[in-house]
Specification:
The protein contains three helices and two strands. By secondary structure, the protein is mainly alpha-helical. The longest helix has 13 residues.
């Protein structure tokens, strides 16, 4: 599913960035070779970051 429409980032791409060590939205964008544009997805990405950390991700 698309999470970031501006950069066409999917949940799978974001999950891969998190698995590679991204631990904040800025790091996720950088790992995907882009940066935040409108910011509408930042909250969702932050939730994914926190969920990964809460479940022992890093």
């Amino acid at each position: 599913m698309y999470i970031c429409i501006c950069n066409a980032l999917t949940d799978k791409q974001i999950a891969a960035a998190l698995a590679s060590g991204a631990d904040r939205p800025h790091d996720v964008y950088a790992a995907c070779g882009c940066r935040a544009q409108c910011g509408g997805c930042t909250g969702t990405i932050l939730s994914m970051v926190r969920a990964g950390c809460d479940s022992g991700g890093k």
